[in-house]
DNA sequence: ACTCTTCTCAGGGTTTTCCACTATAAATTT
DNA sequence: AAATTTATAGTGGAAAACCCTGAGAAGAGT
């Protein structure tokens, strides 16, 4: 059964965003929005469900939602699903793909990725976003490679991490020396070693590394 | 200072919903949307910030966001904030109120509550949603006080943001001066002003602010 | 006109950071 | 046992950062 236009239904848990996104979808020419609701549970009760081709689902719990989608697909195999969810972890991404969604992108996707996804799904194709593909690749690599990537932290000694933390906390060399009950010169030496190990030229550089490493 | 129309800025982490909600807001007659972005950190860089009266913030972590709002309010005390967040717990709700937001409602709020909230805030009033009030009552009998924005100082100037960026890029004062074709003394003065405006004591502090702001 | 802010620059100072090189005891690894 | 790494500490010096003060010009706002 081919429709001339694809009929879509939107699911978003928040009324305002549901309405707002619905409006946005209504302005797309390649699909026609026939309904919206705030929960996936509600869609099988919708009177216009038989007209729906695509369900666009916003959900914060990808796995739980994938599970629901799988159940619904067993009853209404005609329905296609485009899932919008937070950035997935390597485990959940396989669960979601297994549920048979036609599209899966992250909330943070840019508008053009959105357009591509919704067009692809409405044309009967499949679309997975960049982040999803990445996690998928990552999860399949895990089965082949057990080698844990050496972290930057292993490279630094405990003391050095401590110094790094204090430097990035706006402490002066003198203050750090007092705090740790060691000589200023020792602190200076540690700091200098950190420069070389981390390939930066001053404390500002150290601070950025510290922020990236999460020690502050 | 009264504007004839209230100027709003939208913050939503997800590009699509940001765009969609922005469109919805543009159709409200009582406010005028002048800008949008995906992160609260970005707003102080916006060139049109001086025109903004209200910032409508969608955020998943209410407390973290409240903290950011408090900091921003210390620099731009003129700004009003309407916060949209998940249902709060009894502890976080006080933190959020204390941050001085003018409005606070949950994502799941119905459209009419939305309308009431945004109207109230744009008229200079305060609006807390039903769920928020409930949690507030539940949390305590003690008085909650909104944190006053202590400084009347306005936002960072363009030049200051530029200096901030270069400092956080590990540039020395001298190098910055050459880069911008101004005197070292001028750069020093800017840097010192940044210390005071941002409440930090050295370049390491500036760097952390810069990272948080996303200028590096 | 007057105020406020920004951007600019300077003198003259103190403190901190950064560099180069050396060095020793302790712990860890090989 | 020997070699390496870590943590400690030093001398001495150059560079940069930081502090305080003052001040003129340009521009925006009241």
Automatic annotation (TrEMBL), chains A, B:
Gene3D superfamilies: 3.40.50.2300. The keyword DNA-binding applies. GO terms for molecular function: DNA binding. Keywords: DNA-binding. The keyword DNA-binding applies. This is DNA-binding NarL/FixJ family response regulator. Residues 149-214 form the HTH luxR-type domain. SMART domains: HTH_LUXR. It comes from the Bacteria.
């Amino acid at each position: 059964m081919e429709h001339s236009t694809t009929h879509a239904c939107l699911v978003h848990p928040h009324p305002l965003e549901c309405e707002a996104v619905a409006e946005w979808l209504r302005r797309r020419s390649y699909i026609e929005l026939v309904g919206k609701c705030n929960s996936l549970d509600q869609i099988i009760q919708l009177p216009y469900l038989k007209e729906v081709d695509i369900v666009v689902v916003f959900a914060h719990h990808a796995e739980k939602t994938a599970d629901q989608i799988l159940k619904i697909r067993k009853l209404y195999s005609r329905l296609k699903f485009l899932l919008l969810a937070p950035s997935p972890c390597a485990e959940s991404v396989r669960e979601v793909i297994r549920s048979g969604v036609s599209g899966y992108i992250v909330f943070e996707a840019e508008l053009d990725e959105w357009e591509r996804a919704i067009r692809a799904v409405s044309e009967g194709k499949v679309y997975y976003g960049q982040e999803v593909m990445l996690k998928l690749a990552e999860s399949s690599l895990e089965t082949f490679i057990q080698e844990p990537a050496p972290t930057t932290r292993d490279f630094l000694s405990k003391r050095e991490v401590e110094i790094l933390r204090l430097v990035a906390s706006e402490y002066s060399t003198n203050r750090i020396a007092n705090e740790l009950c060691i000589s200023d010169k020792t602190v200076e030496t540690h700091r200098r070693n950190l420069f070389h190990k981390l390939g930066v030229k001053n404390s500002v550089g150290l601070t950025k590394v510290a922020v990236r490493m999460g020690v502050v």
